[in-house]
Structures are given as structure tokens and as C-alpha cells.
Amino acid sequence: MRSDPTGLHRVLDGAAVLPQAADRLDTRPDLWPDEVRVRVERLNLDAASFRQLHEAYGDGDKVRAAVLDIVESRGKMQNPLTGSGGMLVGTVEEIGPASPLGLRVGDRVATLVSLTLTPLVIEDGLARWDGGSEQVPCDGYAILFGRSIAAVLPNDLPTQLSLAVMDVCGAPALTRRVVGQYDAPVVAVIGGGGKSGSLSLAAARAAGARHTIGVVPTEAEAARLRPTALADEVVVADARDPIALREAVTGAGGPADVTVVCVDVPGCEGGAILATAEGGTVVFFSMATSFPAAALGAEGLAADVTMLIGNGYVPGHAEYALSLLRESAGVRALFEARL
Amino acid sequence: MRSDPTGLHRVLDGAAVLPQAADRLDTRPDLWPDEVRVRVERLNLDAASFRQLHEAYGDGDKVRAAVLDIVESRGKMQNPLTGSGGMLVGTVEEIGPASPLGLRVGDRVATLVSLTLTPLVIEDGLARWDGGSEQVPCDGYAILFGRSIAAVLPNDLPTQLSLAVMDVCGAPALTRRVVGQYDAPVVAVIGGGGKSGSLSLAAARAAGARHTIGVVPTEAEAARLRPTALADEVVVADARDPIALREAVTGAGGPADVTVVCVDVPGCEGGAILATAEGGTVVFFSMATSFPAAALGAEGLAADVTMLIGNGYVPGHAEYALSLLRESAGVRALFEARL
Q1: DSSP code of residue B30
Q2: Nearest to A262 by CA among A322, A199, A304, A321
Q3: Inter-chain touch B310–A304, beta carbons under 8 Å
Q4: A258: closest CA among A147, A141, A172, A328?
Q5: Can you give the pTM of this predicted structure?
Q6: Inter-chain contact B303–A116, Cβ cutoff 8 Å?
Q7: Do A313 and B299 lie within an 8 Å CB cutoff?
Q8: Which residues of B touch A289 (CB under 8 A)?
Q9: For a Cys-Cys bond, which of A75, B110, B163, B334 suits A27, CB 3.0-4.6 Å?
Q10: What is the CB-side half-sphere exposure of residue A86 using CA atoms within 13 A?
Q11: How far A223 CA lies from chain B's nearest CA (Å)?
Q12: Do A309 and B303 touch (CB under 8 A)?
């Protein structure tokens, strides 16, 4: 059987499904030519997944047993109830001759694709994990496909800080690309005080925005964002109130040519559309975004705006986000305060 | 109180919500300066709304009473259970001096914004409607706001045909715009045999596509689409099977630089992403699109594709779609077969 860059060749289900949708993956350590094997040192379980396991089992030993059972039976760490996974940190152990990932043996990497599609074998019974936190020390191995993305961890930053940046690195990369399609645009970032929001503000300015607006939900968050100088204007508004959001952005130098939505609460579509100028672009990074609310909202408002589904993958996204953190004391301060 | 182009000034709820989200709208016939009043001749109820009413009440007289009750109590036709509305046909009766819509008194128009946000008064008790169909003959009036969109019905086409085109006119307009951003791209339309799909195929070719691919679910539909020559290649594939869709599009001259998704079934995100070339664009017009499935799917596949939420409004969309129908015997034949 030939390998497929999506990992299709390791799906053991009867039907042809992608690895993420599969019940069970083939975890054999031998590599297909375009694969990479990583020696795992730690799993970072997705927050929703860990919460479900913790609530279901309570006791740490039982949580550990449940994770071991999932990984053994599925060949990947995908919580069957939440559907979510997490990511891992490890060291490159072997590289197939046709791997396009550009990694070298010995590179210390974090995977930027989900554990839900990554073949995984745990070899130490998770003996060093008490089952009480999302951070899982682990010895074992994982397989990366031709299209799996892994980023080399930099030497000059603490691992936790790098991982926090990589977790949201798609947002600044796509913001840079969209802002670059306009001539000196006004950019509003809804949720500008958060991790993806602060990086997006930094990316917008670096990409040529002439005016940046950070919208935050509380005065306390505004007080944290203002001293970073990441935004030319910081305003407080409830992003779920479309009129309030429009007024806040308009009053702060808007409407925006580019609006970036980084807040994980439902109901922000209408306000984001109204805060955006005709011919502008809204980039939705929030997983709470409702596709019909955005599509029907723009139509109902006769708003000629381009609306993007925030794709978490842009080539070079991890390196770019890390460079923003290194160059911006404001971004770094916000991230370190959240670690 | 000053008027707002969104119609905010006619919301009677206590909280500041947009008209679509409001419980009740002000239906006074006097116009704010940017408004237009339309004499209504027919309502087209949204299919989901009519189905719910029909199943709940069965009897036509009771369905009629329910519609009258909704419109009287809410000031708009928005089914409280489905949340949906429909559209209307009527004649422009009065135009405020500041209306930006470009209409003239006497124009026969269809509204392209939903009834869910349109102030409406029914004056004939729906006496000419038996409650048995989505088509509701009606005398009354409706109000258009500064940002409400209405299209003048052409004289050279049957009303039902024009309405069917206008119902999906956002898809070809946005397809034209996206195709025009590429140099002679390959364009795949998933659901190319349907209304929005066939118009999108015609728009793609008119906008400079060098090769068009129509994907349909059955051989019967392929047999209807092939003779229209709207697509250079017509292929049969289940759009919910990502690998099958990728293989079908690749085998028909793909991958596509632009993929347009026009099928209203869930689960097409992965296949659409895989059928699209790096640097390409996927336009999702299906209301069954899952935002997280698209965002996480592209990230999991490390696919550098731009993903657009299909905004149903693009300036000039109705006129453009009608021109495609007039110029393309193939589009017209497909539409007439579906009336």
C-alpha cells in the first residue's frame, strides 16, 4: 500500500475516512517514505478533553487508565466523547527519505496538527503522570504524515511560552496576509487582549496597518492592553451587542477595513460585520463562529464584506508568531502574564 | 429618533438588537427619510417555516390564522420556531427622500433581504390564500430600510423564474469575484447541477476559468448537466467522502484553484479542502457548512487554502445572475426543469 500525505494509509477502519475521523489508526513504527517518527516526551491534552475525563473519573489513576485505554484501542489520543485531542512535544527519531517536512533527526519539535489524527504509542504506562493535569509526561512514539506540521522549538524561549504562541500562531499569519492585501488599512481586533488577539494586533501593524483598534470586554482587560501600545486605540465593548460593537469601532477610528474576531463567545458575527467598511474583510478565528449567522447576517445587512474562515495553517506561521513575540515586549508581557 | 440603515429605529424590544433578532418591529406606514414602502402582492414563505406551520396545524384555515397572528404580533413574518421568514413581491409605493436603494415609484420588486427583518402589515386577512402552499397572495405593505436590498423584476422573464434566480444570486456574483482574482484558474463546483451550482459554473467560465468541473451526486444528475456544456468535465462523487471527492476532482483536471460548494448536506468540508490546490480558495455557500469542521479540517491537513463564508450579498448580484440566465441556454433549461 502506498502512503498518502493525509495519512489515509494508516486508517484501519473499513470505510475510507481521513485519520481524524477514523476509529483506529495503524501505529506500526516502520515508516512509509514520507513519514517521520517522533520520540514523545509530553502530551498536552486538549482542555475540553481533559475536563471531560476529569469529571467522568475524578480519581487521577482512573483518568490515567482511561487515557491509556483510548490510545491503545484507537492508536491515537482522541477523546471519543469530546472528539478532541491536543498536541505533543518530542524529538525527531527517524525521517523517511521522501518526507517534505524539512526536519532533522534530533530536532525538538511540537506538533501543530492535532493528536486526533496522529498515530501514537505510549511505552511507559504514563508512570510519571498523576492524572491530575493536562500536561502528560510520556515516553513513546508518534508518526507524522507528509502533510502533518511540526515546528522546531526555539532554544531562546521557555518551552511553555513557545507552546502558548504556537497554539494560536495561525491568527497572526493570516492577519498579516489579509492586511497586506489592503493599502494602509484600519484594523480592528475583537478580543485584542488575548493570546491570538495580541499577536494579531502586532501582525497588523507590522503588515502596514495605518491604525489599529483593540476591542476588549472589560476595563480591567483594557488596562492590561493599553500599556503594551499594541493598539492605537483600546475600547471596551460587548462583542455580542452588534450596535455597541459598531459604535465602539467607529468611535475609535473605524469602520475597519479588516476586522479580526478572536473572542470565543457565540453571537459576535453581526457586530463584526457592522464594524467593517464596505469592501472590507472579516476574519473569524473563534470556534464559536456560526456559519449561518455570518452568512445570513451579512446578507440581511446588505454588507459587501469578505468573510474568511480562520484557517489555522499558513506556511511559516509558527516562526512568524515567535518572531512577533521576540520583537514585541507588549506581546511577550501579555503571554507571560497568562502562563 | 433618527433612522438607522439597519432598521434599528423600528425595533420595539427593550434591548438594542438588530431587526432580525427583534421580537417586534414598528410597522407605522410613515417613512423615515431613507426608507421605502412597498405595496405587497405576494409573500413567499421560507420552506422550513411553511413545513413547520403545516405540520403543526394541518388545516389551511389554521395555518392562515397562525401567519396572521405572527405578522400582527411581531410586525414581521418570522416563524418563532424556525426563526426563518421568506421574501415578498410587490410594487414600490413611496420613497423617502434619502433612500439609497435607487428604486422608483411603480417598480415591481422582489425583496432580497429576509422577511425576518422586514416590517410588514397584512390588510386583506389573507382572504385569497388557502393556507396550503408557500405562495401567499396578499394585500398589505412592507418597509425597506436604507440597507435593505430589493431587485426590480424584469419584464422579459416569468416572475417565478426571476425569483428562483434571485434566490441564489449571491453565489454566481461571489464566484465571479473570486475567479477574477486568479489567472485562468481551474474551477470546481460541488453540486454543479443545482440552481446556485449551475449559475456558479456559468459565472466561472464568464470570469475567465480555463477549465470548469461540475461534481454531482448521481449519474441521473450528470446526465442532465452534461448536455448544458456548463462544465468542461462532469463527474459523479459523494461530496461527503473526502478521498472520493479529491480523486474525482483531480481526475477531472484538478486540483481546483477555486472550489465552490453548493450542496446543502453536512460533511463536505474535508473533501472540498482536499480538492483545492495550495494557494486556492474554497467558497462555501451551503448553510450546512460547519465552521469548526472547515477551520480544523484545513489545519489538520496543513492546507494553505483561503476559505470564504459565502456572503449572499454582492452589489449587482441579482442583475448579474439574471444576465447569466438570459445568456446561457443551459442554465435556463436547468432552472425551468426545476420550476
Answers
A1: S
A2: A199
A3: no
A4: A172
A5: 0.91
A6: no
A7: yes
A8: 291
A9: A75
A10: 23
A11: 27
A12: no
Mean of pLDDT over chain B:
95
Position B29 pLDDT exceeds 90: yes
Measure the CA–CA gap between A277 and B225, rounded to whole angstroms: 39
The answer to whether A311 contacts B310, with C-beta atoms less than 8 Å apart, is no
CA-to-CA dists, residue A89 to A17, A95, B298, angstroms: 26, 17, 22
Cβ separation of A291 and B295 shorter than 8 Å?
no
Query: pLDDT at position B287, please?
Result: 84
Question: Which residue in B116, B291, B306 has the most chain A C-beta atoms within 10 A of its own C-beta, making it the best mutation to test that interface?
Answer: B291
Grid cell listed for B142: 412592507
**Residue of chain A minimizing CA distance to B111:** A300
Q: Which of B262, B273, B301 should be substituted to probe chain A, the one whose Cβ sees the most A Cβ atoms within 10 Å?
A: B301
pLDDT, tens only, A60-86: 999 999 999 999 999 999 999 988 899
Domains of chain B: 8-156 (3.90.180), 170-338 (3.90.180.10)
Residue A197 grid cell:
488577539
pLDDT digits (tens, 9 = 90+) for B218-270: 999 999 999 999 999 999 999 999 999 999 999 999 999 999 999 988 899 99
pLDDT digits (tens, 9 = 90+) for A139-166: 999 999 999 999 999 999 999 999 999 9
Residue B260 phi/psi, 5-degree rounding, is: -115, 120
Tell me how many residue pairs between chain A and chain B have CB atoms under 8 A apart: 141
Cell of A160: 511553555
Residue with cell 463584526: A272
With H, G, I as helix, E, B as strand and everything else as coil, classify residue A80.
coil
Q: Average per-residue pLDDT in chain A? A: 95
Nearest residue of chain B to residue A285 (CA atoms): B295
Nearest CA in chain B to A309: B307
Question: What's the sign of the alpha-carbon dihedral B22, B44, A305, B38?
Answer: negative
- Cα–Cα dist A290/B133, whole Å: 30
Pairing of strands B86-95, B36-45: antiparallel
Task: Output Rg (C-alpha) for chain B, integer angstroms.
Answer: 21
Q: In sequence order, which ranges of chain B are alpha helices (DSSP H)?
A: 47-57, 60-74, 159-167, 170-179, 195-206, 219-225, 242-251, 269-274, 291-300, 317-327, 329-338
Prior bond to B100 cis, omega within 30? no
Point out the residue among B117, B291, B292 whose CB comes nearest to the CB of A300.
B117
Helix axes B47-57, B60-74, angle to 10 degrees: 120
Separation of alpha carbons A205 and A208, rounded Å: 5
Which set of grid coordinates corresponds to residue B55?
Answer: 405540520
Least reliable range by pLDDT among A10-19, A144-153, B176-185? A10-19
Over residues B97-106, the mean pLDDT reads 96
Burial of B200 from C-beta contacts in 10 A (0-12 / 13-18 / 19+): buried
The partner residue sitting opposite A314, judged by closest CB among B287, B304, B313, is: B304
Laid out side by side, the sheet with A86-95 consists of A120-122, A135-144, A36-45, A86-95, A108-111, A150-152
Q: Residue B290: which of A242, A291, A302 has the nearest Cβ?
A: A291
**Burial state string for B295-319 with b = 16 or more CB within 10 A and e = fewer than 16:** bbbbbbbbbbbbbbbbbbbbeebbe
CB contact under 8 A, B241 and A296: no
Inter-chain contact B296–A114, Cβ cutoff 8 Å?
yes
**What is the ipTM metric for this complex?**
0.91
Between B83 and A65, the more confident residue is A65
Grid cell locating B224:
442532465
From the CB of residue B337, how many other CB atoms can be counted at a distance below 10 Å?
A: 8
